[in-house]
From TrEMBL:
Needed co-factor(s): Zn(2+)
One Gene Ontology term from the biological process aspect of the record: inosine biosynthetic process
GO cellular component: a single term: cytosol
Record-given protein name: Adenosine deaminase
UniProt KW keywords: Hydrolase, Metal-binding, Nucleotide metabolism, Zinc
Catalytic residue list: 209
Species, as recorded: Actinomadura rubrobrunea
């Protein structure tokens, strides 16, 4: 019998219909676009104006081992995203790039408060981004929901939460808080989360990335987060001394029992020091224990990655097959902030048939 390799290749993974829940708009610009926009908008702070060198610079500068230093690189992307035209272009190209990678549904986030330096109002920022995504959806057959993010060290979360509600029928599907985690617990923004809950709105919280269990506990039990951005440190509440019978603490058990989605971003976690390597990333254990794990990019520019690449790295490290990749994808679709009907349609009409086709091809014996 012919030897068969069932391991999905990068090329085949790119063709699979994928779902992405955690991707930052200001972490995914094309280097060429940054250079163009810097020139158009008079931003003079770039470390280099050669797109190839700039790509390398972002990746290297992001390999710092600390979230705070990792976040410093956003000065340049945010720096060139201060006009409506720039925001619309970046959003359009984001949709185009994700569609080219085979993503069929994505939730892309950004912090409107960071884009008002040249005089745009918060609603103008949101509308410019939505315009870019709408054009990208129309031209590239991808569905994109926006999450508006509040910066956790600032004090504008209530205003941003109000934006999430105001634009909920125009493409904004949820809210998030991001930025340095240590020293800025999610409970600082409790009023915003309580407001969103009263409005029946959805939100995720970056938690358990650079800080441990207390941050995850607050995000879920005080703030009521629907999902966790990263959440890798939930591993601290699991005793895996006996590999065959890991013991879950109360918080880890709660997260698993309630099927709280974990938006895991493997490469980003290595760059910020939240995990040592892909092979040692908690995603391996969490997947085995059937947590509601999803796979994400976080920042495609800073991590030099795509959703297909993240999945392929996991295939190589954990020997995952198509069933695992479909499981991550269905998990993500189930956890999306769009309505149940639309999620179901994508699962049954797009994801399952798409994976079935790839699995069938992968199963053909080699001639
Ligand atoms: O992994 C992360 N953890 C915390 N904050 C982040 C991460 N990636 C990006 N941002 C922050 O989110 C803002 C809005 O998109 C970015 O400007 C960056 O400061
Ligand atoms: Zn993030």
């Amino acid at each position: 019998m012919a030897v068969m390799d069932h391991r999905p290749t990068l090329d085949a993974i790119q063709r699979a219909p994928k779902v992405l829940l955690h991707d930052h708009l200001d972490g995914g610009l094309r280097p060429e676009t940054i250079v163009d926009l810097a020139r158009d908008e008079g931003y003079t702070g770039l470390p280099t104006t050669d797109p190839d060198n700039l790509r390398v610079w972002f990746e290297e500068a992001s390999n710092s081992g600390s979230l705070e230093r990792y976040l410093e690189t956003f000065t340049h992307t945010v720096g060139v995203m201060q006009s409506a035209e720039a925001l619309t272009r970046v959003a359009y190209e984001c949709a185009e790039d994700l569609a080219a990678d085979g993503v069929v549904y994505a939730e892309v986030r950004y912090a409107p408060e960071q884009h008002t330096r040249s005089g745009l109002t918060l609603p103008q920022v949101v509308e410019a981004v939505l315009e870019g995504f709408k054009a990208g959806e129309r031209d590239h057959g991808i569905r994109i929901g926006t999450l508006v993010t509040a910066m956790r060290h600032q004090a504008r979360s209530m205003e941003i939460a109000e934006l999430a509600v105001r634009y909920r029928d125009d493409g904004v599907v949820g809210f998030d808080i991001a930025g340095a985690e240590a020293g800025y617990p999610p409970t600082r923004h409790l009023d915003a989360f309580e407001y969103l809950q009263r409005e029946n709105a959805h939100f995720t919280i970056h938690a358990g990335e650079a800080f441990g269990l207390p941050s995850i506990w607050q995000a879920i039990q005080w703030c009521g987060a629907d999902r966790l951005g990263h959440g890798v440190r939930i591993i601290d509440d699991i005793d895996a001394t006996d590999e065959d019978a890991p013991v879950l603490g109360r918080l880890a058990a709660y997260v698993r029992d309630k099927r709280i989605p974990l938006e895991m971003c493997p490469t980003s976690n290595i760059q910020t020091g939240a995990a040592k390597s892909i092979a040692e990333h908690p995603i391996g254990l969490l997947r085995r224990l059937h947590f509601r794990v999803t796979v994400n990019t976080d920042n495609r520019l800073m991590s030099g990655t795509s959703l297909s690449r993240e999945l392929h790295k996991l295939v190589e490290a954990f020997d995952y097959g198509w069933d695992d990749l479909q499981w991550f994808t269905v998990n993500a679709m189930k956890s999306a902030f769009i309505g149940f009907g639309e999620r179901l349609e994508l699962i049954n009409g797009v994801i399952k048939p798409g994976f079935a086709q790839l699995k069938w091809r992968g199963a053909r014996p080699l001639a």
